[in-house]
Amino acid sequence: MSAQSGGPLRFGIIGTGGMGAAHAREIAARDDAEVVAACDINQAAIDRFLERVPTLKQRDIARFTDVAALAGSGLCDAVVIATPHTQHDEHIRLCLDAGLHVLCEKPMATTAAGARASIAAAERNGKVLAIAYQRHGTPLYRRAHEVVQSGEIGDIRLVTVLIAQDCLDIFSDPTRTWRADPTMSGGGHFMDTGSHINDMMLFVSGLAPEQVFANFDNYGTLVDVITALSIRFTNGACGTFAATSLSHEPWREEFSFYGSDGVLNIRDGKVTLHKKGHDTRFLRGSGRESRPVANFIQAIKGEIPEPQAGPVYGLRVAQITEAAYKSARSGQPERVG
User: Fold this and answer.
1) What's the mean per-residue pLDDT of the chain?
2) Choosing a second label site near 35 at 20 to 30 A (CA), which of 67, 294, 298, 312?
3) Model's pTM, two decimal places?
4) What b/e sequence results for 262-277 when a residue is b if at least 16 CB atoms lie within 10 Å of its CB, and e otherwise?
C-alpha cells in the first residue's frame, strides 16, 4: 500500500553498505514507513544488507542493481541514497525526476554545480531533498546555532575548526574500500568526515564561503588525509579548518566562533559562551534529538515546513570542498563556485 493511499511511506535503499543499513533499521522500526526495495550493483552486498537488517529478511523486498530501475519501478515513495560520494548528485536527480523524495548521505554533491542541479530538481518536482547530517538534530548544536544567530556574540570575525581522528586505514587501500579511491570518493578525510565538520561550521555560524586556500597531504595514499585550510567568508570573516586522520587520539572535534561581542566554543561535547567582563557560561541544549530519517519523514508528511538539513547546506559544503581541492592543485586561493 502506498503512502498516497494511506499506508506507510515506502522506502528504497540505494547503496546497501553500513550507512544504508543503519537508515534501513530506523525505517524498519517505524509504523509509518517501511523498506520495500534495495539497490546495489553487487547482489552479495544486498545479501549482507539483509543480514544487517534482520527484520527485512522476513519480507520479500524487491532487489535492484540499477538505480534507474528502482526509481522507475513505482514501488517507492522515497529513497535513501548511500552510494559513493561522486555518484550522489546523479542518483539524487534521477530519483527526484522520478517523483521520489530523497534523503542523501553526505556529501550531497562533490561540486557546486552538481549541488545546484539537485536543488533545481527538487524544486522542479516539488519533492523533499534532505541530507543526513545528524548534528543538525542534536540539542547541543541547535543551541550553539541559536546563540550565534541571536547575535549574542555579535558579528562573526574568526572561525577556527579542528577535527582529528585515528582512521588512516579507511583511506589507505582502494582495493578494500571505495573511500580510498578518489574516483568514487571524490577525496579523502576532508571530503568524508570533513563534510560533517564543514557543515557544522556553516550551520552554527550562518556564514557563506567566498574564497578558500588549501594545503593537503596524502601521506602516501591516493587521497587527502591531512588538511589545512584558510577560508574567507562573504561577510569578510576569516576561518581556519584543520583535519587529520593520523591522530593518536580516537576523536577530537573543536569549533570556536569569535564575534565582536563574545566567543562561543564547542569542545568535548560542551558549549561555552564567554563575554568580556562576564563569567564563562556553560550552555545546555533542550529538547530531544531529531534523527535524519525521522525528520525527513516529518517533512514529507508536511508536519514541518522543511527538513533540518536542507540542500542549501549541501551546496555550501560543496562550494568549500570543490574550491579547496582546486586550490590544492593550483597552489593559489580559489573563489567558490
Assistant:
1) 95
2) 312
3) 0.95
4) bbbbbeeeebebebee
